[in-house]
């Protein structure tokens, strides 16, 4: 079979505009179908095989199938169409639902090739399968597969895979694809791609039992293949989405024993699902497999795992991952740093939180407003007002908003330590920043200042609040 015969009718993408092709397309796009050939004959431009291909690839021909047929017929008087041009015509007719003319074109291709199917290829039938399945005609697609032999083609794995892929593009058609597979598997040699297509179809439908059945048959028929990552990805992703983490890990261990691993797709999905469920044990087990599979974790995987570790209190592991990220070409951002800071605060590790805030400042990463308020509260409760004030200075310097919660926590902490001079100073600062102080905060200040015989300082704050 020639390379041209196997060329897909989908084409290779955009090509440089050809003046001849543009002239033909102008006629095809504007003239009624019955007048196309006459208009082309009088335009004075001679087609070439290459120009004919370019014209037939155009969206204009796809949207005006009858005009495309007339162009094809007219051009055939001057040039011998390539197998690719014939495939394009078959594709145009199939997409337009003109199935009888499509088969007429295929029969003509067969004759053009000397009756041995020289111009008809697997690519031709792949187009037929796609056109039928796009219109829900799955039985017709199956029938087309069964008549390939009449056109000099022996149905093989490539042809079967094209059929299964076409069926599976439609939603909820995994069962139809499985039936086609069952009907043909005894006569067609199968390959790894055949099973990968079916596994992906069952993954889309979330059917873990069918996926396991297909996977078992795949291992028996084609064996273990380290390059068959799509199949491994699909099976394992189906299992974890179905909540069968233990089963997925069992399969993963079996793959590992046989020198096979899934790819990024599974590990990304598995980490995402495990972390969203808060399943720390399975998330860690999967993470260990990531490095063993030599998969490079991406940013979202790192952030998800760091967040989970911080949530359960394994902050040393989270810090280890933070240090590891640059070696895998991944760089932490504010979300990453704030997840770790939040973990320190949640688990009341004040000393570590203070140290980590300094590291954040050094790396130009700002704490969130909520973390600032929580850190000030923690430092105040742990008898470290200086650290609380440092956090407030960060809020002021970097204009971290909203600042109301941080302001409330700072004043509450300073009042508890009877540091009223600093309360006055920072209250002035808050008023300048137009931070809203709650009524309860104001009342607490009043009581503290009156008790300390510093009513004048409170009155100063009260006057400023009234003038706002």
Give the total of beta strands: 0
The chain-level structural class is mainly alpha
Q: Give average pLDDT, whole number.
A: 93
Distance between the termini: 85 Å
Number of helices: 28
* Overall geometric form: elongated
Into which percent range does the helicity of residues fall? Answer: over 70%
Q: List the quaternary state of the chains.
A: single chain
Give the DSSP E fraction (strand runs of 2 or more residues).
Answer: under 5%
Radius of gyration: 35 Å
Organism: Panicum virgatum (Blackwell switchgrass)
Protein name: Pentatricopeptide repeat-containing protein
Keywords: Repeat, Transit peptide
GO cellular component, one term: mitochondrion
Describe this structure in words.
- The protein is an all-alpha fold and 468 residues long.
- Among the domains are: 1-120, no CATH class; 297-365, no CATH class; 379-468.
- The protein is 71% helix and 0% strand.
- The protein contains 28 helices and no strands.
- The longest helix is centred in the middle third of the chain and has 15 residues, at 208-222.
- It is elongated and about 110 Å long.
- The protein starts with a helix and ends with a helix.
What key phrases describe this protein's structure?
468 residues; mainly alpha; disordered N terminus
Summarize the structure.
By secondary structure, the protein is mainly alpha-helical. The chain has helices at residues 3-6, 19-30, 36-42, 49-57, 59-63, 65-75, 83-95, 99-112, 122-134, 138-146, 157-168, 174-184, 192-205, 208-222, 229-241, 245-257, 264-277, 280-292, 299-312, 315-324, 334-346, 350-362, 369-381, 385-398, 404-416, 420-432, 439-451, 455-467. Among the domains are: 1-120, no CATH class; 297-365, no CATH class; 379-468.
